[in-house]
Amino acid sequence: MKIPSNSELIDTAQAVLHPHHVGDRLFGDVAATLVTDSGTLYSGVCIDTGCGTGFCAEHAAIAAMVTAREYRIVKIVAVWRNEEGALHVLPPCGRCREFVRQIDHANIDAEVVLGRTASATLRELLPANEWPQPLD
C-alpha cells in the first residue's frame, strides 16, 4: 500500500472544500481527508450550526470510513482556506483527537499532517491518553 504524501493528502482534502452560507452559518469551509490501513481515502467537511449540533470535518471523514466498515486511520489532514485564498492545514481540535483515538486503539499512532513537510503522531498530540490506574 502506498501512503499518500502530505501534499497529496492536502490536495485531496482541498478538492472537497466548498464553503456554503446558510444564514449566518458556514458549511464546508473545513475539509478533512484520511487514509486507512487498506489504503482507502475518505473525505468530509464540517457543518457549523447555531445550536451546537454541527461537527468537524474529521468527524465527517471518519463517519464515511466507519460506514464502509473500516476503523484504522494511518494518516489524516484537515484544511481551511481563508478569505484571501490562502490554504491552511489545521491540527485537529481536542474533541477530534479523542474521537480518532476512540474509533480504534491503534489510531493513537495515526500520522496527523500539520503541513506539507510536518506531521506528528496522535500520541504526540494527545498526551496522557491512557486510562488512569486506580488510586487505591
From TrEMBL:
PROSITE patterns attached to this UniProt entry: CYT_DCMP_DEAMINASES_1
Gene source species: Streptomyces niveus (Streptomyces spheroides)
Transmembrane segments: none
Pfam families: dCMP_cyt_deam_1
InterPro entries on file: APOBEC/CMP_deaminase_Zn-bd, CMP_dCMP_dom, Cyt/Deoxycyt_deaminase, Cytidine_deaminase-like
Family: Belongs to the cytidine and deoxycytidylate deaminase family.
CMP/dCMP-type deaminase domain boundaries: 28-105
Protein name (database record): CMP/dCMP-type deaminase domain-containing protein
PANTHER family registered for this protein in UniProt: CYTIDINE DEAMINASE
Keywords (A to Z) from UniProt: Hydrolase, Metal-binding, Zinc
